[in-house]
Amino acid sequence: xxxxxxxHKQYGDVCALGDLHCDIPAGATVGLIGPxxxxxxxxxxxxxxxxxxxxxxxLVNGVSVTEQAHVVRRLIGxxxxxxxxxxxxxxxxxxxxxxxxxxxxxHERPRLIDDLLGLVDLSNKRExxxxxxxxxxxxxxxxxxxxxHDPTVLVLDEPASGLDPRARVELxxxxxxxxxxxxxILISSHILADLADLCTHLIILDHGKLIAYDTLTALLSTQQxxxxxxxxxxxxxxxxxxxxxxxxxxxxxxxxPTRYVIHMQGDDAxxxxxLKACIxxxxxxxxxxxxxxxxERTFLQVTGSTI
Length: 307
Known about the structure:
- By secondary structure, this protein is α/β, with parallel strands linked by helices.
- It folds into 2 domains: 2-216, P-loop containing nucleotide triphosphate hydrolases (Rossmann fold, 3-Layer(aba) Sandwich); 223-302, Alpha-Beta Plaits (2-Layer Sandwich), CATH 3.30.70.100.
- 35% of the residues lie in helices and 28% in strands.
- The chain has helices spanning 40-47, 69-75, 91-101, 109-119, 135-146, 165-180, 192-198, 216-221, 237-245, 268-280, 295-302; strands spanning 2-11, 14-24, 29-33, 55-60, 63-64, 76-79, 153-157, 184-188, 201-206, 209-215, 225-232, 249-252, 259-265, 285-290.
- Strands 6-7-8-3-9-10 form a 6-stranded mixed β-sheet, sandwiched between helices. It has a 4-stranded antiparallel β-sheet with strand order 2-1-4-5, covered by helices on one side.
- A hairpin with a 6-residue loop joins β12 (249-252) and β13 (259-265).
- α3 (91-101) crosses α4 (109-119).
- The longest helix is centred in the middle third of the chain and has 16 residues, at 165-180.
- The two termini are 36 Å apart.
């Protein structure tokens, strides 16, 4: 559905994006993540035809963003990270204005607007002033605007930024529904926990370079360091000797002296060996469990950071 073809973007002497090359399948929900200055915004601006690449191209359903930008714009719905200012305009008028921009016939607009307000749960706000809406409501209205022309691709820039927990849950539920409808979704966000719940694939950028691209499951499975949580019935100095003898490191919980976190390299067999060594040393184990891999730890690992 989306093919990044050796994409480069240069701003003077600064390389904002260097040789981004990957293919996103139709119907995928893809998280675009990376530290500030990684190239995420540049990637989205090129994809949405707001900026031309220095070299390379992006194909959206086979259509070039550099050669047929006007066609690509019909295929993409873009939700920027800022909403804009729309004084003296109601939610209905806001959507009607953009529906006219997309040349949607007048007789189709009322029903379409009602349907979209219903989809984003804003039917009771149709006559409310746009600038009176909460941050969460404004984000949902912006998403409705991006869906007006029924695009096949959605590009969302920090959609959960500034939202309270309830609004984030509501937004995730809505994005799950759009994924189920077959939309291809690209989301840039710093809230990795939300992306872990939403995404089928991940693109990780750093300093304008593609660091990793794969399915979420595959990326999580490549995490090399395991965290084993061990809780004992009483403080156990012997546990540290066992852990260090196997070449691993351990940290103790300052608040709970009988809880330890072991950082180890290895597979299930290595974990079993650690457990056997603890039992052989007669360590009074109450709990022994491997923590699930997280997107945060995977991100730090592939970008060379530490935790």
